[in-house]
Design goal:
- It is built from nine helices and five strands.
- The chain has about 230 residues and is of the alpha/beta class.
- The chain has two domains: about 90 residues, Methyltransferase, Methionine Synthase (B12-binding Domains), Chain A, domain 1; about 120 residues, 3-Layer(aba) Sandwich (Rossmann fold), CATH 3.40.50.
- Helix 2 packs across helix 3.
- The chain is globular and about 50 Å long.
Length: about 230
Amino acid sequence: MDRERLVRDTAQEQNDLGDALTGLKMSMLGFDEAQFDSICDRYRQASGFRAVVEDLFVPLLEHIGLLWQTSSICPSHEHFVSNLVRQKISAEIDALPPIPTTSDPIVVLFLPEHEIHELGLLYVAYVLRSLGRRAIYLGQSVPMADLAQVSGTCSQRLIFISFVTAFPAMDELIPYANRFRELVPKERCALWLCGGQIARLGDAPWPEGVRAFTHIRELLQELEASATGGAER
């Protein structure tokens, strides 16, 4: 009986997820913000905000990227959904109390120069605050020299986290990581990279203190493990 109930519940969850994703795609095509909000609110009540982002927004945005590349949708559809997602994540961050200054390691969130796709970075900022981890959010298109200034200003251990969707290009990723290592102190600063370019690059000879994550879920799992006492490398 328990097994049968588990099968039914799992099937229902999969149906609910599929229906929600289909509904969000329809709301995108119709530029229907009210429908988008209604679907997100129902899913959140059932599963929580993180499930909304990780179960709905992440696959939705990945699918939108494929549709945009094949000209199946116009850029305005992507902008419409991206702005709605940004608003929701920003509201959740604002609803959480700020993290007081401590001697714990600080996470520095940034995007490389010319990189503007910040939704993944924004979500990591939300997760960090929900975990009680302090973060410095630098945002889009940050010059390498600014990262060096941050490392010189903060005496604590720093973990720099960035998402690479379009910039730097794949053949420039390793040189970018090497330049970071030249400018930022190795003994107390690490660099974690995630995003589409990282996933496409595959295995690479990253310099010491640089870690690559092929999917945001892997990055979040590492942050959660470190928040509960796991090692940070």
